[in-house]
Amino acid sequence: MAEKIDEEKRFNISSFALHILAMALMFCDHAWATVFPSAEWLTCIGRLAFPIFAFMTAEGFSHTHDLKRYMLRIFVWACVSEIPFNIMYGGSVFYPFHQNVLWTFLESLFLIFLIEKCKRFKTPARIALYAVISLFGFVLGYVTMVDYYGAGVLTVLVFHFFRERTWKNRLIQFVCLYFLNVELLGGYCYVLNIFGYEIEIVQQGLALLALIPIWLYRGRQGFHNKIFQYACYAFYPVHIILLALPAILQ
User: Measured on CA atoms in the order 183, 159, 84, 82, is the torsion positive or negative?
Assistant: First the structure.
């Protein structure tokens, strides 16, 4: 029994490790977008960042003791990050056509709040309300033009709806992320020739690999304090400013 417990500990990832991994992957993706556009491998591995952050947002909702403060923190940092994001993404201080990813998470948390309120209803009505809220979130993501649009909002909802660590939920997570990333977001493809057969790999589909570290997470928090918490929030605007700085100074 002790050996089994030790083995489980050896192959699980803490919340701390997931945050560090997601931030490193995000940095790679943004480095490709700003400084190293020819290093396409950076954005390939960067595809894994968003699903991990989306999972941690859903996980954060389930663990927070004060949802209002949690959402307020994200709102404040979303506002702080908007100008750096605009400069990186649109090349100007004001760019209303695409909003940073923290707005995606903020909208998702509000929808999860509504979803939780629906639990008081009986099953048929509850499921119908879940569907309506999810559809509303999908449309809202596109109307507000948040990062990853409606697909990004639904990604967070998927991790909330199917949070339990069962093989059925993991299968549903995989199918949903495949649909959201390959069918909806789709886009650029790589064509591989294997034994005479051409196989297309959608670049955004590489996001499904994020499920590996996510599934290795077992609820262990790991290192955590207020300094690290705020460092994670500050990382987003700070690393964007640093990467966009060369373009700003030109």
Answer: positive
Going by C-alpha positions, the residue among 158, 138, 135 that lies closest to residue 150 is: 138
Cα separation of 250 and 234, whole Å?
25
pLDDT tens per residue across span 22-70: 999 999 999 999 999 999 999 999 999 999 999 999 999 999 999 999 9
Say what the pLDDT of residue 10 is. Answer: 59
For the ranges 24-38, 196-210, 234-248, the one whose mean pLDDT is highest:
24-38
CB atoms within 10 A of CB 230: 12
List helix spans (H) across the chain.
Answer: 2-10, 15-34, 40-46, 49-63, 67-90, 101-117, 123-143, 149-161, 167-178, 211-216, 226-249
Query: What residues pair up with 199 in beta bridges, in sequence order?
Result: 192
Cβ neighbors of 53 (< 8 A, separation 6 or more) are 22, 26, 101, 105
What is the value of pTM for the model shown?
A: 0.92
Gap between the Cα atoms of 166 and 159, Å rounded: 12
* Whole-number pLDDT of residue 165: 92
Distance CA 183, CA 198 (A): 19
Beta-ladder partners of 193? 198
